[in-house]
Amino acid sequence: MRALNIAFFISPFILAAALTWLTLADPLLAWLNYGVWLTMIIGVYSFVNFTSTAARARGYARSYVGAAPDLRVAAFVTAFNEDPSIVEGTLISVKSALGAKGDVFLLDDSTDPGVAGELRRFSEANGVVYLHREDRRGFKAGAINDALRKHGDRYDLVAIFDADQRPRAGFFDAALPLFSDPSVAFVQVPQNYTEIASPIAMGSKYQQEPFLRTMMRGRSGTSAFSLGSGTIFRIAALREVGLMDESSITEDAATSVRLHSRGWRSIYYDDFLVWYGEPPRDAAAYIQQQSRWALGYFQLMGGILRSDLHFTAFFDYVSGAFYWLKEGPLTLIEIIAPIIFLSLRQPFMKVDPVVYALAYFPYFALSIGIFYLVMRGKNYGLKGFFLHQSLEYLAFTGITAAFISYLLRRRVPFKVTPKGRGRRSLRSVMPHIIVAAALAVSIALGALWLMLARGALEYAIAINIFWAAWPLPFLLSATWFALRVPRESGDSGYVAPAPGP
Amino acid sequence: MRIAVLKAKGGVGGSTFAASIAKFLALRGMKVLLIDRDLVGTISELAGLRGNGLIQLVKEGSDPRGALASLQVGRGVLDVLKLFSDGVPVEVEQEDARNLRDGLTAAYSDLIRAGGYDFFVADNATAATPLDSVSGWELSAFSELMPGHPRTAALVMEPGEVGLRATLRYAASLRDHGVSYFGIVVANKVEVDMESLRSAYDSVNEVMNDTGARIGALVPFLQELRRLPEGIEMLHVPTQVMEVGNAILRYMQWREIRLPMPDDQFRELARASGAARERGSYVYTPGPDDPLRRVVLTLSSALVKLQSSQFAALVKRLIDIVRDEHGDEAQAFALDPEGKISISGVRKLTLMPAYSSDRLRLKGIEDAVKMARRLAQDALDSSGRGSGIPSLLIVSSTNILEPVSTCCDQSLLSREFWREFLAHARSSDPSMIAVLLCEPIGDRCDALDGLADFTLSPQSAAESLLSIVHSRLP
After folding, report:
1. Which of A390, B69, B224, B406 is deepest in the core (most CB within 10 A)?
2. Of B224, B257, B284, which one is at a domain's C-terminal end?
3. How far apart are CA B394 and CA B378, in angstroms?
């Protein structure tokens, strides 16, 4: 199985190389030719995976009734220097949702003594077990593992919540019955972005929709992975894989891969059971979040390739990596290719443009059509599509940077996406402005060239103008969103309470 | 199992007992052959069999299947075999039976082999013995055909000294002719005042002591049985006959008679009258919870209209009855979204949020029917119990559970929803007893009338004893 998986993984790269060899026009631009082929092939692989998960998602049915097994739950809320008012709201929600089914722990890695002190006071006053670490070894995964080693014996399940994700009252009632199946290692309940304070935040919500409403539903039972928060793990299963993976910055996905390759199952329970969630508010925060997720996923690839995953699960996981590749470096290639062709008048690929147009555009239309059909009736619509695409173009810089960091074997420091700050940031969209300008210039140059050109070249220029024009509205709107982040209302600033008598 | 129904005296309700126990076994999904060996032919009449019986059909060379009537009862089958013909003198039939022995045996064997029966119930003429040529032939043919097949005999009597003495004498003469496998003693037409019950109990107990029978039953005088109905479909099966049938079914399953705890009322009685239980025997007596017992014994569905303050007490009684009748392996599950039944011994089934959101989102009756099916299936699945062991599925707050929509009339919606829920629960798990608890104030109970096999409600609001308002099983 592993050999087949690896062969499958490298197939798009080999296929692209073969096509590059067949269509090479200029040896100096071989990299661009290869990149364009890889973009198309990876696009097809992703489309196939999307269609297959969407088909599986059609059969996604959540049980109406469950019988909760008698299992004890440790609910962990992880915190690192967040605004204590947010953390406290989460602790209260977790505590009231959990009731008598277990205990709530605050795993506080805060380095700010003011925050730590306040959280300790609050926890002690409200029956929350407060655990603080001085060394932040293993970051969030390390904090969870330390707490599990110390207290895990008394519980069967561990629920993990980020400081800003609040479970609703029925959270555990809905999730615990799913553990009556002994092969279930974890249950993931999706986060819900409720605090929509800016267009970026809104786009962020829409960008998650296809993933949360289709992909994860389709993957439930086979390869639905932990999203880091809103996950309940079976402690015995975690123990079997050596607890949470501390080597990855996306410890949730890495741990999921280990569990899945051991034959454990996971259930994705899609319902509105987490009632508070702050999406990134500004461009910098969004790019940083996407960059961190992408890097985590790239780091995961080694583990996925070495794993004993079943092919379906493997394809799902690999498609995740393909997605990040496509949204980062390959988006860059997609933008550069028409610019080079139109402004330098330098062909890099020997393909009959008519054949290309007849082959590729119907596929392109089909993929968008299927995407539309799948997302229909899920409150997504054209607006969602537009916001989603804009945000993907916004993040390509961060994702490309993450890819380069990965190639350089750099470990970017773990940073929590800044929340609730919301600022305009011209710097974070500077590359987008430059690229958009270059595209606009290329389109103009291309138009001039088109007037002179004859025959097949005419088609080639037209196709390239199309590809130069396609990302332009998304890039421009992304820039626009980045520059109009509303000012914060200013009520959530942290004020240390006066020490009691 | 073969049950021979015997009586010392006519008119004591022997044929009624034979027909009702056969009907109950069929209701529980068994294939039952009821052999009418009584020349009066009460049972054949009830089954709509007229004209020639098996003996004359064989004599004429006609198809012997003409002596067989087949009825679908619940999930089971009840076949009736008529031996004697209408209008033919009994002496002629007996002579024919002697002469046609081989032909009769061949026809009889074919019928029994083709039927694949689980149970045989043989009704007999008054004071029948194996010396009688027809009964003797049938018994020996059966023994040859099904050697080693378990068998028992039920003695049916009326309370009173005369009936008792006659029955004891009859039992003694049967023993002389090699019939000693008495298992059941039934006293019919028992008055329900304490004095009469005690005397009937003593009589039954005496016959049980004498014959070694281990199951006894006191069947009260029932209005429903004052006159026989026109067909077996309409025949009322007394609760105590159901209990006897259930005890036999459990015996078949476990190869031992698992005896229930006596009712409080009769514990004293049992002790006073020689403590039948200590010998490992039991007498089923009429009790105040008989309506609930009927639901439990027939593994039916029920709608109970009751104030929610009485839910917990009712469920407790139900669980006791289920454990009593079906053993301690029986479990109880509750779909109880408002927490109206929080008592120990009930496993709570959680209503998942997916249901709560779908419930308000349906577009028409078809959606409601689909939801009902899924709800029933998911409830059965999540009970996670081994199949075949009877258990209780209690559903409270019907109006909280049923879907709500502006698409259609709410009463119609409720009705179709619960109809499908009960039908689906029934068909996918026939041993699950589904009980809907509905509060007359607040819930839309009236819309659910007649959907379940039984509809029960207290006679007055203050009372907690239930009576049957409507039943699909006579």
Report:
1. A390
2. B284
3. 14
Of B349, B352, B383, the CB nearest to A62: B352
User: What are the beta bridge partners of residue B220?
Assistant: B190
Tens digits of residue pLDDT in B415-446: 999 999 999 998 888 889 999 999 887 777 88
Which residue in the set B348, B354, B384 is minimally distant from A64, CB to CB? B354
Measure A178 CA to nearest chain B CA, in Å.
10
Report the alpha-carbon distance of residue B103 to residue B25 in Å, rounded.
Answer: 30
Task: Read off the DSSP letter of residue A349.
Answer: B
| End-to-end CA gap in chain B | 25
Please report the pLDDT score of residue B18 as a whole number: 96
Backbone angles phi, psi at B79, to 5 degrees: -105, 140
- As a whole number, the mean pLDDT across chain B is 88
Same-domain check for residues B278 and B329 = no
Nearest CA in chain A to B337: A65
Query: How many domains, in total, are found in chain B?
Result: 2
Residues B255 and B277 in one domain: yes
Of all residues in chain B, the one with the smallest CA distance to A168 is B353
- Percentage of residues in chain B with pLDDT exceeding 90? 52
Confidence of residue B340 (pLDDT cuts 50, 70, 90): confident
Average pLDDT, chain A: 89
* Residues B183, B49 within the same domain: yes
Q: What is the CATH number of domain A73-280?
A: 3.90.550.10
What residue ranges of chain A are covered by domains with CATH 3.90.550.10? 73-280
Asked if B382 and A177 come within 8 Å (Cβ–Cβ), the reply is yes
**Residue numbers in A near B375 (CB within 8 A):** 64-65
Q: Is residue B244 located within the same domain as residue B103?
A: yes
Q: Is the pLDDT of residue B236 over 70?
A: yes
Q: How far is CA B73 from the centre of its chain?
A: 11
State whether A177 and B352 contact (CB < 8 Å): yes
Tens digit of pLDDT for each residue in A118-159? 999 999 999 999 999 988 888 899 999 999 999 999 999 999
Report ipTM for this prediction. Answer: 0.77
CATH number at residue B425: 3.40.50.300
Closest CB to B382 among A63, A170, A272 = A63
The 3-class SS string of A47-74 reads: HHHHHHHHHHHHCCCCCCEECCCCCCEE
The mean per-residue pLDDT over the stretch B161-181 comes to 92
Across the interface, whether the CB atoms of A65 and B378 are under 8 A apart is answered yes
Please give the structure tokens belonging to residue B311. Answer: 């839910």
Interface contacts A/B by beta carbons within 8 Å: 64
Element housing B454 (H / E): strand B454-458
Name the residue facing B335 among A65, A271, A272 (closest C-beta).
Answer: A65
Q: Do A65 and B354 touch (CB under 8 A)?
A: no
Chain B residues whose C-beta is within 8 A of a chain A C-beta are 333, 335, 347-355, 357-358, 371, 374-375, 378-379, 381-384
- Beta-strand relationship, B215-220 and B346-351: unpaired
User: Which SS3 state, helix, strand or coil, does residue B107 take?
Assistant: helix
- Look at residue B259 and tell me whether its pLDDT is greater than 70: no
Which of B252, B284, B316 marks a domain boundary? Answer: B284
Cα A166–A171–A174 angle (5° rounding)? 160
pLDDT band at residue A487 under the 50/70/90 scheme: low
Cα separation, B468 vs B472, whole angstroms: 11
- Could B382 and A66 be called an inter-chain contact, meaning their C-beta atoms sit closer than 8 Å? yes
pTM of the model: 0.80
Indicate if B102 and B214 belong to the same structural domain: yes
Alpha carbon distance B368, A361 (integer Å): 44
The Cα A260–Cα B380 span in angstroms is 29
What is the residue range of B49's domain? 2-284
Q: Assess whether B198 and B294 both reside in one domain.
A: no
Q: B182 and B34 share a domain? A: yes
Q: Is A65 on the interface with B (CB under 8 A)?
A: yes
